[in-house]
Structure formats: C-alpha cells, structure tokens
Amino acid sequence: MTTTTAPHFETEWAHWHSDREERLRDPLGFLSLTALIWLTDQPERLPDLPGTWWVTDNKVFITARPADRLVHEGESIAGVQILRPAEGAPGLHVRHEGRVLEVIRRSGRYAVRVHDPAAPTLRAFTGVTSYAPDQRWVVTGRFLPFDEPRTLTTGAVVDGLEHHHTAVGTIEFTLGTVTEKLIAFGTPNDLRVLFTDATSGVTTYPAARSLSVGAVGDDGTVVLDFNRAANLPCAFTDFATCPVAPEQNRLRIAIEAGEQDPKLGGARA
Q: Which Pfam families does the UniProt entry name for this protein (predicted)?
C-alpha cells in the first residue's frame, strides 16, 4: 500500500463524502424511484400512471388526454406522443405533476422508471455508512493500455440485461503481498473501474462498487483511492438496472474501504 502525504486527507474525504450524500438527496434522483415497469407491444395502462403505453418498431408510444397532465419537453401530451430513448443512456422524461416518468431502453427492452420526490426511500435516507477513511487504502497502480479500446460486456442486476463498456486497459497494483489487476473503462483522461472483493456480500454491496480513478500520470501511474469506492444506484433501490462487475475485476483481497451495503444496515435511517 502507498501512504499519501496529503495534509488534509480526512478533511478532503469528508468533503467528498458529504458531496456524495448531497447528490443522493436529489429529489428526482435514484433514491426517488418508486417503480420500474417494462413495456410490451400491447397498449396498456400502467399501475398508478395516466395514459396508455406500448412499444412498436423500437419506438415508445404514449396516448393521453390533456386531463392526464402528462408533459414532454414543456408540451402537454394530447393524442399520441412517440419517444425514442437511446440504448443504455439516461432516459427521456415525461412529467406528471411532481413526478418524472423516465422512459429508458436497456438491451433492446423498454421501461418506465417512476421518480417521485415523496418516495419512501428518499424520505428515509440520512446518509451512507462507510469504512473510516484510511490512507493505507490509497494505492499507486500502473496503467497498461490496450492497443485499441475494446467492448466488454457484463451482466446486470436485472436478469436478461447486458451492459457494454468501453475498456481501454488494465490497472495493476499491489496490496500487501498480493498483486491484482482491474480492467479500466472510460478514457485515459478519465478512468473508472467496477469491482468486487472479499467484502462483497458481507459488508459491501455484492454486485459491484465503482471507483473513479481519473487521469493517467505522465509516468503511466494512477492513484486508486479505495476510500472513495462508491455504491451503484442498485445498492439503494430495486428499480435500477446497474451492471455487475466483470469477472476480471473480482478481487481476491478484502477492500475494507469505501461505502458499505445499505441493505445490510449500511444506510443510516
């Protein structure tokens, strides 16, 4: 392990942690989700939602009346509205009073995610329990780029879905006497990793945690601050479609740093 010489390590981590919790309090963020409803090719009314919804020819159709109070891009939906959400991207928003109905496409399937500022999960949230910050978990690694970026496919927390990531290389690092490797996604100027370790399913979320690594240094090194290993949205809600960690990123060691699993008592409520 590498010990950082940053004089305000704990203060900087506390600021990061506070900012992270504030983002989670977004009234229309992932903690506001109350439903994930998969659409079919049959027009149907969805539970607790106005209008009629269905999918045809890779397009989502919504029929509504003005009294339904559905709004897309500032215009009331009166008649038929067609939406074309992009695969894997943030969804297109239809507003219904204070709620946002997010229309998404995942692995060729279409769904509506309901964001409600009055969601019980959001109301109950008072923070995320993490391991205490410790400089021992700030590790220097070496980035080994691939000749060309490649697509790496992982599963998801929802059966039948896939995620396609742009993998640009591997990061090699040593903790104690163990040398590990992680496949990195993104670009050399903005790397991130999804990983599991020996704490996954014990004290941390089992599917994956995410770590932003940042840019590769001029000497080819990167800094992995595992104190900032963060939960994916699916750790907080059953209505997310997050990826699981790739097999290559399932570490043998226990990373006793970063955010813990809210569903195992890690969320203060």
A: DUF1684
Shared domain for 72 and 171, answered yes or no, is no
Residues 220/142, Cβ–Cβ less than 8 Å: yes
- Asked whether the beta carbons of 199 and 226 are under 8 A apart, the reply is no
Within 13 A of 247's CA, how many CA atoms are on the CB side? 1
| Same-domain status, 185 and 235 | yes
Place of tokens 């290559």: 248
DSSP 3-state assignment of 65? coil
Residue 101 lies in a domain: yes
Q: How far apart are CA 110 and CA 114, in angstroms?
A: 13
Residue ending a domain, among 124, 144, 172, is: 124
**Residue 252: what residue type?**
R
Extract the tokens encoding 168: 């640009």
136-164 pLDDT tens trace: 999 999 999 999 999 999 999 999 999 99
